[in-house]
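Hi R.,

Here's the chain you asked about this morning:
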Amino acid sequence: MSAVQTYRYLGSSALGQGGLALQTSGGPTPNPRFFTGFLTTPQAAAVGLLAVAEVARTRYHRPVSPASLDPVVTGSRDRLRFESFSGCCGVYARLDTLPAGIDGDVVEHGTTNVDVNNPLREALARVGGLDPLHLSVGPDDLTVSTMDGPVVEKKVPLPVRWLRGFAEVQILAAAFEPRAEIPATEAATFLRRLPTTSDRSVLWAVPAGKSLRLTSRPVPGAVCLAGASRLTALRGMLRFAQTLRVYGPTVAAGSAPVPSTWELDTGALRLSLTLSPEPYRGFSGEGAALTALAGDDVVDDANLVTAVLSWDPTIDVDRLASDTGIDPARVRAALAQLGTAGRVGNDVSEAAYFHRVMPYDAGRAERDNPRLVGARALLDTGAVELDGTTATIRSGDQVYRARQLPDGNLTCTCPWWAKHRGQRGPCRHALATRMLTVERAEERV
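And here is the predicted structure, written out as tokens:
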């Protein structure tokens, strides 16, 4: 299923003697220039852009022909971010061009898709170490015309899975912490020992001196490495990197597979890959965003936060709390809600959110999430009966029981919960129970 958006490009992206021209679309004015200037590390930047584009064209689970999806570029004050998901939605790639990596001005702030076509990929691959690379996001001169004029109209199908993937990744990444940092030489040895062909194994990486060692079982401090071959896109950047940093949530012995982020830092650029908990799992189905989508009060808070968001490279939660008059916890919940529409992302390196605007209907993620739609349908038909910390849910001919645990999570007797044990978010019965519990609590206030 795709959300088809119409974009207008003046032409194909190209790399010529004048520099790299990435054609953009959308924005506050037709075909704006988000940035114009030089990239200070041209060869590394070219490799990073190719890596992000390659992830967008790859299906790591059940590989098929290239997906041909356009990466997303965001300009925000002093940096550019290029993002993509793999065709299977199980790998999220991002290249951050940091202040040290650009020599120019971000003259417009915004987000758009970038046309990275075959000729451009071939040209980027030919960039040498001494070749200057000038980046212009949008044309230098804008000519507005009709559909019969020089403007090329291009319809780009953006899968709903991408929207749900962006929503899930930013919530999952908010719980990540730095787990390891190793020098580039050790990183090269570690990454080159990993398989390059598709695999379904789930391993765990444990810090070991200046390197990492792999184990088949989780231990405290370990980072999940599901489908190690999915890190292949990092290899081209190894020769430019200074360090490899690894991020993930807290795990213990016996933990289930979890997502992780693997980031190469050159000083001027950061190339990161975030992997889903298992090779066959796409981020779009993880369910981490369901609680944020289910809230009612958080929508009003999200509207307040939207009004004061700016295109800062990172979002200051305390400043937003001061500007909006709501406490930091509610600001974070509002940011999670905004993330479900692609309006914010999360940068694990800086442990902060960042602002972007995706070309999606703000309510699309909620309307297209089958578990949330199912939960609202159960509430609308009065199928949920609360009894203290338990609930009875009638769904068709079946009756299920949901129970609240001491930590606030809910269990359910349905097949979904029995299969996933809460690892992929709440089932529709637990979600409906939580929504009704909150509604009743608000009525008592």
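One quick note: The longest helix spans residues 428-444.

Cheers,
M.
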